[in-house]
Write a structure and sequence with these properties.
Elements lengths: L1 H31 L2 H10 L2 H10 L3 H9 L2 H10 L3 H9 L3 H9 L2 H10 L2 H10 L3 H36 L1
Length: 168
């Protein structure tokens, strides 16, 4: 029994040590690589792996990486993963870098991201960056809201019309 306990403890210690080593290695690697090399690495990785890397390193290194990445490569992981991980990244870094990212994203993707962010975080983002980008976002938000209202009104009118046809 004692031997089994020692084996279990030993294995779990090795596992956590190897996981920590991997994280440290990744941080060192990512921070020391040239932008070009980093880009090649990230573009060859599967999107899931890229997102795992980014979620494990919501630090200065990640921000440096994200701000240096070429638009297409940055956009792919963000637009494919508008999930909790992306949200954590954005909500923890409501800075110039985030705004740069958002300004490079297509309006549609940006809107999806913003709609999933908490209102407080979105407002912080928008209030800190009263630039052309923010104005575009605000305009798009207003247009989307108007579209939703119009579609809703049309839907109600269609239901009313179909009910009247049924009554006749």
């Amino acid at each position: 029994m004692l031997l089994l306990c020692q084996l279990t403890i030993g294995n779990s210690a090795k596992l956590s040590l190897s996981q920590r080593t991997t994280e440290i290695t990744m941080k060192l690697l990512l921070s020391r690589l040239t932008t070009e090399t980093t880009m090649k690495l990230l573009s060859r990785l599967t999107t899931e792996t890229t997102m795992k890397l980014l979620s494990r390193h919501t630090t200065e290194t990640t921000i440096k990486l994200l701000s240096r990445l070429i638009t297409e490569t940055t956009i792919k992981p963000l637009s494919r993963h508008t999930t909790e991980t992306t949200m954590k990244l954005l909500s923890r870094h409501t800075t110039e870098t985030t705004m740069k990212l958002l300004s490079r994203l297509s309006t549609e993707t940006t809107m999806k991201l913003l709609s999933r962010l908490s209102t407080e975080t979105t407002m912080k983002l928008l209030s800190r960056h009263t630039t052309e980008t923010t104005m575009k976002l605000k305009t798009q938000l207003a247009l989307n809201l108007a579209q939703v209202k119009t579609e809703g009104l049309q839907g109600i009118q269609q239901i009313d019309a179909s009910e009247q046809n049924v009554e006749k």
